[in-house]
DNA sequence: TAATTCACGACAAGTTGAGTCAAGATTCTA
DNA sequence: TAGAATCTTGACTCAACTTGTCGTGAATTA
């Protein structure tokens, strides 16, 4: 598995925040309930996303979390790399092409191709795109999101 | 990282065997030396590849390992899945598209696309292709492979 | 029989994943 | 100012996986 639940849960949280832009801070418990994420685990993911500037938090009654950028200016790629670290599929993709280490690996060229496409797709998809896709299927899943 | 050293080392070993087809069994120690794999770890990988029918082994002096199939009939995909298990990039790719679990994830559709292309590329590349690519760069790396 | 080579399973150290929990900081409201 | 609501942070846990090492035993050949 390339992604752990970190990348999954973290993106769920951002989608939830994007869907509630303009309604004031969204509470951790709300996000956790709607997106089915363990609340105390979500804490860590929100902290990471805050450190990297994707959201801001306010404490106290009425506090919560809000997006710090427009949802169409946050790509899936940057969020996943923030939460998971580099997404290289195999170590040797990092090696200089033409280096001995890259050659030893033997499959470097195959994966470089796949990796390039992956970066294109993820870099070309924003949180806003994910929200839009969700909205288009809203009727069918309204019950799931318990909105 | 999607692949661990298992997938890397295992493919290296098969490339090495494919390069020495027709020369009789190749010894574990030879493979390990040429491809820079810890010998006792290589054991486990060869065992897995043997179980799945990609090579056969003979014991005793002059023994070693040989491919059990033609190298152009072994795809990178099947070998990697033998060594690493499923290559799905994110859990929800396994969920029924349209299911609640798939929808909750929010990025299912993006990854399904990427995964499909990955399977195409890996399924369309054989050990023979990897050997051919290596041969085309042989001059530059002859020293590395110590052949 | 001795030497060579693979076969298989036990063991182990380190890392990561997936959380839980508690103490503390901040802010709002009464 | 007290108390309640929220987030913040770090410590801690437990299980699984990675990346090996080792030792014993089996098969084969000379």
Provide a concise account of the structure shown:
Chain A has 147 residues and is mainly alpha-helical. The first copy, chain A, has 8 helices and 2 strands. In chain A, strands 1-2 form a two-stranded antiparallel sheet.
Protein architecture, described:
- 2 copies of one chain form a homodimer.
- The model of chain A has no long low-confidence stretch (mean pLDDT 94).
- The first copy, chain A, is mainly alpha-helical and 147 residues long.
- Chain A has a two-stranded antiparallel sheet with strand order 1-2.
- Chain A has a single domain, classed as Winged helix-like DNA-binding domain superfamily/Winged helix DNA-binding domain (Arc Repressor Mutant, subunit A, Orthogonal Bundle), CATH 1.10.10.10.
- The longest helix of chain A has 16 residues, at 108-123.
- The first copy, chain A, contains 8 helices and 2 strands; from the N terminus they run H-H-H-E-E-H-H-H-H-H.
- Chain A binds chain B through residues 1-3, 5, 7-8, 11-12, 15, 35-36, 76, 88-92, 98, 100, 103-107, 109-110, 113-114, 117-118, 121-122, 125, 130, 133-134, 137, 140-141, 144-145, and chain B through 1-3, 5, 7-8, 11-12, 15, 35-36, 76, 88-92, 98, 100, 103-107, 109-110, 113-114, 117-118, 121-122, 125, 130, 133-134, 137, 140-141, 144-145.
- The structure holds a DNA duplex (30 and 30 nucleotides).
CATH homologous group name of chain A: Winged helix-like DNA-binding domain superfamily/Winged helix DNA-binding domain
- Sheet-strand content of chain A, in percent, reads 5-15%
Q: How many helices of chain A in DSSP terms?
A: 8
**Cα Rg of chain A:** 18 Å
Count of β-strands of chain A:
2
Q: Assign an overall shape of chain A.
A: elongated
Largest interface: A-B, 41 and 41 residues
How far is the first residue's CA from the last residue's CA of chain A? 30 Å
CATH fold field value of chain A? Arc Repressor Mutant, subunit A
- Describe the strand arrangement of the main beta sheet of chain A, using strand numbers: 1-2
Poorly predicted segments of chain A: none
What is the H/E order of chain A? HHHEEHHHHH
Q: Supply the CATH class of chain A.
A: Mainly Alpha
**How many discrete domains of chain A?**
1
Largest sheet of chain A: 2 strands, antiparallel
């Amino acid at each position: 598995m390339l992604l752990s639940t970190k990348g999954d849960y973290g993106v769920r949280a951002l989608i939830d925040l994007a869907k509630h832009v303009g309604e004031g801070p969204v509470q951790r418990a709300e996000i956790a309930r709607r997106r089915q994420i363990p609340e105390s685990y979500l804490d860590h993911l929100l902290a990471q996303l805050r450190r990297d500037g994707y959201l801001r938090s306010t404490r106290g009654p009425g506090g919560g979390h809000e997006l710090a950028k427009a949802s169409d200016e946050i790509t899936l790629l940057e969020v996943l790399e923030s939460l998971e670290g580099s997404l290289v599929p195999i170590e040797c993709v990092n090696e200089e092409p033409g280096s001995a280490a890259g050659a030893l690996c033997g499959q470097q060229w195959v994966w470089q191709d796949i990796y390039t496409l992956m970066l294109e797709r993820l870099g070309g998809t924003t949180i806003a795109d994910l929200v839009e896709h969700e909205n288009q299927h809203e009727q069918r899943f309204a019950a799931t999101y318990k909105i």
